[in-house]
């Protein structure tokens, strides 16, 4: 079974959300077999910034959805979008 590389865009609920705290929460809520490889902050508009999350996980059904749902449950997160996903 292979691995999947997934890039997620995490949008905060407003410009006041501390993305450093969100990063730490993402690490905590990631399922056991998901490895968070990197984070980046992407300016959007009017001071709003998105958190980009790069994760590697086994090619198992539902694991990506579980990661997305867990991140959506973090306080201050408005939405989570899968920007890209590929088999590695």
UniProtKB/TrEMBL annotation:
Q: What NCBIfam families does the annotation carry?
A: aEF-1_beta (TIGR00489), PRK00435.1 (NF001670)
- Species source reads Ferroglobus placidus (strain DSM 10642 / AEDII12DO)
Gene3D superfamilies the record matches: 3.30.70.60
Outline what the protein does: Promotes the exchange of GDP for GTP in EF-1-alpha/GDP, thus allowing the regeneration of EF-1-alpha/GTP that could then be used to form the ternary complex EF-1-alpha/GTP/AAtRNA.
* Keyword Cell membrane in record: no
Q: Which HAMAP family match?
A: EF1_beta (MF_00043)
Quote one Gene Ontology molecular function term: translation elongation factor activity
Stretches assigned to the Translation elongation factor EF1B beta/delta subunit guanine nucleotide exchange domain: 3-88
Q: Which family does it belong to?
A: Belongs to the EF-1-beta/EF-1-delta family.
Q: Which UniProt keywords apply?
A: Elongation factor, Protein biosynthesis
Q: Which InterPro entries match?
A: eEF-1beta-like_sf, EF1B_bsu/dsu_GNE, Transl_elong_EF1B/ribsomal_bS6, Transl_elong_EF1B_B_arc
The protein, known as: Elongation factor 1-beta
